[in-house]
Amino acid sequence: MSAQHGAPSSGGRKRPSAGGGSEQPSAGGRKRSTATGGQGRPSRPGERERSGAAGRERGTAGRDRSAQQAGNGRPARTPRPDQKARDRAAPQDLEAPRIRDTSADREDLQADCASCFGLCCVALPFARSADFAVDKPAGKPCANLRPDFRCGIHAQLRDKGYSGCTVFDCFGAGQKVSQVTFGGTDWRQAPETARSMSEVFPVMRQLHELLWYVTEALGLAPARPVHKELRRALARVEGLTRGDAESILALDVNALRGEVNVLLLRASELVRAQVPGRKKNHRGADLIGARLSGADLRGASLRGALLVAADLGGADLRDADLIGADLRDADLAGADLTGALFLTQAQLNAARGDAATTLPAALSRPAHW
Questions:
Q1: What is the sign of the dihedral through the CA atoms of 119, 235, 24 and 259?
Q2: What is the pTM for the complete model shown?
Q3: Is 340 exposed, middle or buried, given 0-12, 13-18 or 19+ CB atoms closer than 10 A?
Q4: Helices 194-217/227-241 angle, 10° precision
Q5: Which pLDDT does position 93 carry in this prediction?
């Protein structure tokens, strides 16, 4: 998402990071270099949130859900008065029954490239950099896009200099635009639709990213006080995704993201309030290259934080709010991300981890880890 600390991005370029904008849902998903020298620093007028844009690696490894969210499904434990001190001393006992796995609810919000007309390879521009071997303007098909809308170098994207493509995630917007908005007629069959399709895609991506976050929030038991409003928001955004191209392009997505983010922030606060002790607040912080190995960040707010190349090895990030955090090249080896709030596949794909990194159940271990 993109919301409070930085102005939401407005372009449609692919972005290899998982959050180089504001905390709210990203506004376009720009591709850009992973170089950290001043890049990705958002303007911060007011409380706009950093983008949670960025990508999903196609062909990532199957989901590794073992050892994740241990204890899911158990009834919430009500501590007896004489237990409170022990619970504070042993926060690991307060595990994740309060978080429901919403993977099945979000299946339609995962990219289905076989049902898409290669829109991310056409609609979005990228610049020659560490992430892209060449320049490509918006609306021009990538030279590697095959006639069947598949990538001709998919298995060698990183080797060929297209690592930026491996971290992009459309949240299922590609198939929605292809099969619903344009009724299954592709831009090669109907060239007159090419421009409109390319313009609708980045907007749809933002709407689907919103749906991803709202659906997750509805799986958070402590957030029940805002579930009614979240359900209304979900229905509203879902309805907008089914409009025609003209109505989608007329949307004020920045305003919509701002409205929904108020609910997401409240949901986050309700969940993190369950974590004992004082929680760290690094919202919007510049933590580029920070040494946070083994840090206790449980229940912390890292909304929109710049964590590019940060050392988070072995850090405790359980129940931390990571919406829009920029995790490009961050070291997550051995980190515990169980129950991490609003973490996306894009953010994981842009980071570095290992087999010991514990992930939320809805996400997959990136193939390049």
A1: positive
A2: 0.74
A3: buried
A4: 170
A5: 38
